[in-house]
């Protein structure tokens, strides 16, 4: 198992919304994301090359909500 680096508040977190923070930890091959107010709940991990496109898609104003099947 690969050990991730230290967790830190993501620069993509909203500073004005105290409850909407995410933390990230990186390693040369993976980036992990978790909710800062409930870190034990779960973690998403991405290949390093996929993290920036993921963030851009979340920030996109044209992103549409989809419903689960």
From TrEMBL:
Entry-linked Pfam families: DUF397 (PF04149)
Domain DUF397: 6-59
InterPro entries per record: DUF397
Domain of life of the organism encoding this protein: Bacteria
Protein's name in the database: DUF397 domain-containing protein
Native organism: Streptomyces sp. SID12501
């Amino acid at each position: 198992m690969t050990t991730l680096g230290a967790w830190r508040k993501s620069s993509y977190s909203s500073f004005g919304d105290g409850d909407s923070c995410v933390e990230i930890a990186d390693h040369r091959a993976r980036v992990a994301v978790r909710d800062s107010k409930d870190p034990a709940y779960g973690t998403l991990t991405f290949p390093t090359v996929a993290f920036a496109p993921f963030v851009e898609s979340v920030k996109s104003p044209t992103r549409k909500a989809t419903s689960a099947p």
